[in-house]
Write a structure and sequence with these properties.
Length: 320
Amino acid sequence: MDLAPEELQFLALPEILRESISIPKRSPKTFYLITLTLIFPLSFAILAHSLFTHPILAQLQSPYADPSQITHEWTLLLVFQFCYLIFLFAFSLLSTAAVVFTVASLYTSKAVSFSSTISAIPRVFKRLFITFLYVTLLMFAYNFVFVISLFLLVIAVDTDNSLLLFFSIVVILLLFLVVHVYITALWHLASVVSVLEPVYGYAAMKKSYELLKGRAKYAAILVCGYLVICGIIGGVFSRVVVHGGDSYGVFGRIVVGGLLVGVLVIVNLVGLLVQSVFYYVCKSYHHQGIDKSALHDHLGGYLGEYVPLKSSIQMENLDV
């Protein structure tokens, strides 16, 4: 990002995307290694998850399934799901930490390398984890209301209550189209705040809420675009690779699967870059100064680097 901080507020969505895509060119080796070691495993796991669970689900749903094997299949499915969620959670936070830290280092003209990014991740991960716990509580409340709305929808259909049916549909649509998208945007921005500012958890979410004011429309469009693209990729993968054995053959499924994994890797990388750039856009929009020297020192703190004293009083005491 070669633009001055005060100019970032004027970036439109196409310009935000263009700025984000241009960032890896400034340190291609670092982003290549981050993509290979963190983003690729994450993207592969997201798509391959359905490929591995499909045979288990098919076995459970089969009317000819051996009852003695049902318990074993359910145990296998639950263990696999648990391991998948842990893997997804860990690599999602690791990828976020790595990209946000690297982009910020480039923004402050700090020396960037894959080793320095990896060295900073442990401390960054702790802050992201605490913020994620608060977001999880918020998502739990959201899902609770969502389940109640679905329950009301079922009751409305069974009782043929048109008023209750209309109310339930409106609530469900609002929860998905507005609340879900907003919480996702809040979480992504809070993750960046947790890395780049001395706050995390609830304070990071509050800061994210304040930064989104006036730029919530941009955030909603970016989140919806990302979700739609991921949905299309997942749908094609499910149709061709998971369920297309009789129509596409082994070779065709391998080629399409590999292509879709590659596309998802690019989408996830660009999404993380946009997430980082959008933070600076929001800061600029609210006329909050971005002190590059302070940010430089803050990033150095993750690496255990020496931060010079800036207080004249402290220096005078040392002289005495």
